[in-house]
Amino acid sequence: MDILVVDDDEIDFLHIKRTLKKAGGDHYVAHVKTVDDAIKEIGDLLFDVILLDYNLPQRDGIELLLELKGNPVLNKTAVVVISTSEEESVALECLKAGAQDFLVKSEISPFRLHRAIINVQARFKLEQELYSSYQKVKNLAEKDSLTGLPNRYLFDETLKLSIQKHQRTEHYLVLMLLDLDHFKYVNDNYGHHIGDQLLVAFVHRINEKLRSNEVLSRLGGDEFAISLSALNTPQQAAIVANRILKSLEEPFDLNGIIINTSMSIGLSVYLHDGDSAQELFKNADIAMYRTKATGRGGFTFYEESMQQEMLKQIDIENNLRNAIQNDELTQLYQPILNTQTHQMIGVEALLRWNFEGNFIPPDEFIPIAERSKLIIELGQWVIRQAIYQLSEFNKNNAAPITMAINISPVQLSDTSLIDFIKSCLKEFNVAANMIEIELTETALLINDDQNIVAIKALKSLGCKIALDDFGTGFSSLSHLKEYAIDTVKIDKSLIAEVTEKEKVLMLVKGLTYLIKSLGLNAVAEGIENEAQLAVCKKLNIEKSQGYYFNKPLESHVIMTLL
Ligand code: C2E
Ligand code: CA
Ligand code: CA
């Protein structure tokens, strides 16, 4: 065993050395007389035990203990303090300062010294283990293991502290919440392992754009936060947000997988938008949500009106939940005509919600229903009602009409959708090819396996597929080919300008040419006047729909038209 004796008294040292010899065992014993020499010695060599005299000239034993305690590089050795004092307070002081044991000089015997040396080593090892597991737990509690960023817990604590400190300054404190857009898409399509890589690469890139006082934290998943204090104006936070957004313009290259991403950011200002961490979080979240709703990839400061808007939406959602049971839903049917002959060849089912005497338009409640997945239940009601109604329309009709049903992308992700449609067709004895499912391009953009499976299953069931609102979004040629679309509906916003703007006319001409050359049917929706109809006739758009012919009508009115 390698032992260092720190004692200024030569006689005492020799006594200890003799006692060690008597205690047996093979010892190397080094001797220094001062704390400074001890530190030098400990820095050079690794000892098993230090026997430390309490009373030393210049700096005493306690000082060495404290020095070792504060220096993890030096603190590798168990220490027994040896003192002439029998006082308990001295012993306690030494243990507190980091010694593992305390012996009174007059009581030292070979047996006692030997036992002390063995015990302190075991004790020291235990202490070290305990300390390192404490460090690990502390890290786990405060650091995110994937990115190494402070986690939610640490961020919360830091924000609360900033708020406390902030009360004494004139500056602004802003909470920034950041959410990676379409992260789920990355996970679903490339796997979690690429998702993780993206997060790490993202954190690395953002951190390069941040100053030392702008600390990025990971709240969980793809959610991050930064608290910005000491701002002269809240607008300075906007500058930081822009810096972050700009840094994401360049795509990420993850071992050859190129991923484009953006962030939705929400900001709340201390005192202006809330006086507690909780309030600031809630409101920055609302603002972030607004960014997402208005197209993602940007930032929004919280405004009080958003709170009202949010509450209104929650209200609508709650009421909508009961709408089905309370019989508040109705369906209107807008005729779709042969453009040349004006004969009604089909109808489109359009949903209405009669809430407390008011008809709420679908544009207002469908997005809310989609977000809460309520659309799945609502959509089933729509499908069953439409198929039932079609069977009624065609009962005594020599030239049967078709029924167009709007289906939201969220419904496609419902694995029971196909079976549900099948059972309704069977129940009301309706042929699948009389049903046209209207999808918007967003449904095709979500390159989800389940969506593709659902569209193919609808197709093989015999239903027709129509692409709604064409000309507003991506209007991608590949979508038209890939998904075996039957019909393309040219959006009403284009029809509205087709007689006024030469450019729009050219665009509609081009789209129609494209649709026809792929062998698909074209429908012009939103025809409101004679002139628009004339254009559609000239362009040979087969089908037309719009207020010029009919508004969405109740079923009994359709019956009379038939
Ligand atoms: P959409 O599928 O593009 O439906 C056509 C919308 O244009 C309907 O609005 C219709 O009333 C309106 N419209 C028809 N002709 C004209 C016209 O000449 N001029 C103008 N300005 N508008 C016209 P509505 O009924 O308010 O529906 C709005 C949207 O709500 C629909 O757009 C559709 O995306 C959605 N929606 C309606 N019913 C359902 C449904 O049952 N399920 C789903 N998922 N979405 C639905
Ligand atoms: Ca539609
Ligand atoms: Ca449409």
Biggest sheet character = 8 strands, mixed, barrel
Give me the secondary-structure category.
alpha/beta
User: Strands of the largest sheet, in order across it?
Assistant: 13-14-16-17-18-19-20-21
**β-strand amount:** 15-25%
User: What small molecules accompany the polymer chains?
Assistant: ligand C2E, calcium ion
User: What's the N-to-C terminus distance?
Assistant: 106 Å
Low-pLDDT parts are none
How would you sum up the global shape?
elongated
Describe this structure in words.
With 562 residues, the protein is an alpha/beta fold. The chain is built from 22 helices and 21 strands. The strands form four sheets. An eight-stranded mixed beta barrel has the order 13-14-16-17-18-19-20-21, surrounded by four helices. A five-stranded parallel sheet has the order 2-1-3-4-5, sandwiched between helices. Helix 1 packs across helix 5, helix 2 packs parallel to helix 3 and helix 7 crosses helix 8. The protein binds ligand C2E and calcium ion (2 copies).
Question: Brief description of this entry?
Answer:
The chain contains 22 helices and 21 strands.
Give me some keywords for this one.
about 50% helix, 8-stranded mixed β-barrel, 5-stranded parallel beta sheet, 21 strands, binds calcium ion, alpha/beta
